[in-house]
Amino acid sequence: MQRIQDQIDAHYWIITNGQSWIKPVTAITLGIVLYKLFSPAPDPRKTTTIDPKLIPELVAYPLPIIGHVPTLSKGRNNFLKECVDRYGPVFQLRIPGQNPYVVTGDIIPDIMKSSTKIVSFLEGIKTLIPATHVMELSYDHKYKAAPFNSRDKNPAIYPIKQNFKSDKIHVFSERIQTGLHIVLKRDLDLKPGESKSVNMWDFLTNTVSQMSCPCFAGSVVGYDSELISSMAVLTQKIIRAGIFLAVLPSWLGDAIVRRVFSVEKEIDITMRLLVPELTRTREEILNGTSEVTFSSMLLSLPLHDGSLRSIEETAFWFKSIALSSIHTTSHISSFCLHELSCRPELVETLRNEINRLDSLNPETTATIPLLDSFLREVLRCNIDYLGHHSLALQDVQLRNGQIIPKGSLIMSALLLAHEQGISGQATQDNHTKTCLPLDQFDAYRFVDAGEDTNATDVNLANLAFGLGAHACPGRYFAANEIKYMLSELIMRFNLSTPSGKRGENSVLLGTSVFPPKTPIVFTAI
Ligand code: HEM
């Protein structure tokens, strides 16, 4: 019973983030939510022509309503290992509102690297973050995005793939440093020995937004406090809206999102600031004097017929980079700080490494092997139990002969893959003999570990950024921001928690892992 209460608490925390004014709305809709959330899942075996023997089996579950959630939450990988032993590498779980097919081991790369015509991550993630729909509900009455033409380069992905490569990140260095120094002066200007307890989520979303907005929108408007705070909350608002849209009938979900979770204010701010700025930038592009930003990249990216996007359309797309970058980077940064908060010796060793640098900036902090190893270990250990939500756009034929039916949600057993290690990589196997077992955190694991072991290298042993052609193109930028931010914090503060122990991660529905809610105490040195 306590576990069920934990799940409800976790849900409630995500939805409200402690705001009591949402309670009446939650109460009114609770009945419908529970009905829709916990009603039996349609059985694909009854609605498809696929031979039922080829469809991965639904794992038996003891509890009719919450299915596998308690077992998953309690057993971590133990339960998933039992499922693999009994049902093979692919099986279906009963998780309210999701009922995913779970893929494990070698099947994970097959799914992640599938053609986007067969399996779509972007469609799958919409089940969690229905950004387009929330945007339409919030803003269609003011501005409607132009329909996407499949012959155009994707405006949310292409500019990042082309311009955020590892050898091009240095152009953002000064803006990242200025952004962080503004935060440190404003929020953490402590005298030696003075301490401050900091709520990580608010602090980090704002810090990452403050470092990133000048890179994405430019130095003129990128430091605007309204733009920074609106981009910091955008994803969180959309995730909350997504929970209502997923579980309520569309007429009610849409009405609640329009009224309670609208992001109209945030998009208004973007349009008000960016439209005049981009009008100026277009002139500068013609004169060859424009600053490198996400917006200026998009402004210069021709459509399939050679024409350019309008200023309004470009400003409207700005939200896409905030959506893909700020929440993800803050989420990982929070795990990093929680891991450091209970390891004072590691902080001291890292401080010595940072002290050896000629100067402290994103280029130099990117080169510290222990910091890179630490970040990779954070990504390895704090990954979702089940994640990388993807949608089967067609029946998906797997290498073991099984078929996942069209329309199904597919999730990968990410933590299990990270903890089981990779087979056939001799250097890593030899190296890991000197490290702690794979189910324990070891910040030194990837120091001198051989090829493909940097934090931004993607493979079966590091699934945090996905795999293949669609692996996260923003990972070099994110890693640079995180390492630089951690270094500046380590050089100024000792980190601890009120209890002296690392806070517990929260696990939502037995699948997604969130950083501890406990604050971190910064003590100036
Ligand atoms: C630590 C922070 C981040 C994490 C953990 C992360 C993780 C991911 C993951 C798992 C994917 C899906 C990959 C796949 O489908 O295989 C992805 C895609 C993407 N990410 Fe990130 N990301 C982070 C930061 C960023 C940043 C800073 C940006 C932008 C500057 C960004 C832009 C994107 C884009 C545009 C895609 C879609 C790529 C495509 O579909 O081709 N991400 N990210």
Automatic annotation (TrEMBL):
What species is given as this protein's source?
Phycomyces blakesleeanus (strain ATCC 8743b / DSM 1359 / FGSC 10004 / NBRC 33097 / NRRL 1555)
Q: Which family does it belong to?
A: Belongs to the cytochrome P450 family.
Which protein, by its recorded name, is this? Cytochrome P450 CYP5204
Identify the residues that bind heme.
Answer: C472
InterPro entries reported for this sequence: Cyt_P450, Cyt_P450_CS, Cyt_P450_E_grp-IV, Cyt_P450_sf
Q: Name one Pfam family in it.
A: p450
Presence of the UniProt keyword Iron in the record: yes
Q: Under the GO molecular function aspect, what terms does this record hold?
A: heme binding; iron ion binding; monooxygenase activity; oxidoreductase activity, acting on paired donors, with incorporation or reduction of molecular oxygen
| Cofactor annotation | heme
Instruction: Name the UniProt key words of this record, in alphabetical order.
Output: Heme, Iron, Metal-binding, Monooxygenase, Oxidoreductase
